[in-house]
Amino acid sequence: MKLKTLVAMGSALAAFSMSTLAADVTLRFAHPWPANSAIHQGFAEWGKMINEDSQGRIDIELYPSQTLVKAGASYDAVVNNIADMTATVQGYTANRFPLSQIVELPGMVNSGSQGSCLLQKLYDEGQVSSEYDDSHVLFVYTNGPGQLHSRDKEMLYPDDLKGMRIRRPTVAVGTLLENLGAQPVGMPAPEIYQSLQRDVIDGVAISWDGTKVFRLNELVNYHTQVNLYSLAFVVTMNKNVYAKLPDDLKAVLDKYSGAKWSQYMTAIFDNLDKESMKEAVEMGDKLIPLTDDARKAWEPVLGEITEQYINDLEAKGIPARKVYERAVELKEVCGV
């Protein structure tokens, strides 16, 4: 009897200990990157730090590879509480973040670190923050410059794109491709590999981190180093979920928000850029830097897209010129 009593007491104590260790809140975090990627691991480490700082009361439950929601629907999924948190590309939700996407214009971003500094400052200054009124933003960031990558054809001059089917990452790049006689094809990054395999597209505009994470270096052979764009990202959560947290748990999440964590995340992307370029060279791919003549040919094309984007927004009553000029000023502050 005594042994049975001790066993029962031990079981009850173990159950009590497990219940005390259970998180007060579990936040479902959806993102599109593969579970084996450095980006996923970066978010896992961020979540682990939050868990430890909250003494186990906050648990970040990661859903990579579009397993909870599709990439293009993840921001709305957070607004509608299908997911509690997400990391997503603003451009996946068309026309929703036009001022934030000014940082995506050609030549605006030279590295993820610089671009993230720029975008986070625009947010903190209130230049773009109203675009996120329906969610609780933790931080914003960018990756490094996106270039052109193709399977079978070298592309050096703008005219070389004529007739090619190329995945477009942003509205501005889509317009640029159309102007050059190419056929832009819109799709989230996780769908590019299969589209290249099935000959749906001939090439892709994407950053170096994307060619590695989504294994595109396996399929493309030519990499044209023209700074076409960068991508804006947001890490955000449902407003009501945040509002219902006790103040001490809000303070933990606030501690892991803002500029420091913008730089934490973008450092992973900048490192992936370097790894991806090295990988492409080792695979025998051809990296194509712009010659002076090619650069002169691209400059008016890229400048035209920037002006067109700004003018289109101004025509809708959106203060794009003001935000663009402030972004240019911040480039000096944020360095290279």
Automatic annotation (TrEMBL):
Signal as UniProt keyword: yes
InterPro entries: DctP_fam, TRAP_DctP_sf
Biological process per Gene Ontology, one example term: transmembrane transport
Keywords: Signal
Keyword check for Signal: yes
CDD domains: PBP2_TRAP_Dctp3_4
Alphabetized Pfam families for the sequence: DctP
Leader peptide range in chain numbering: 1-22
Name assigned to this protein: TRAP-type C4-dicarboxylate transport system, substrate-binding protein
Source species: Marinobacterium lutimaris
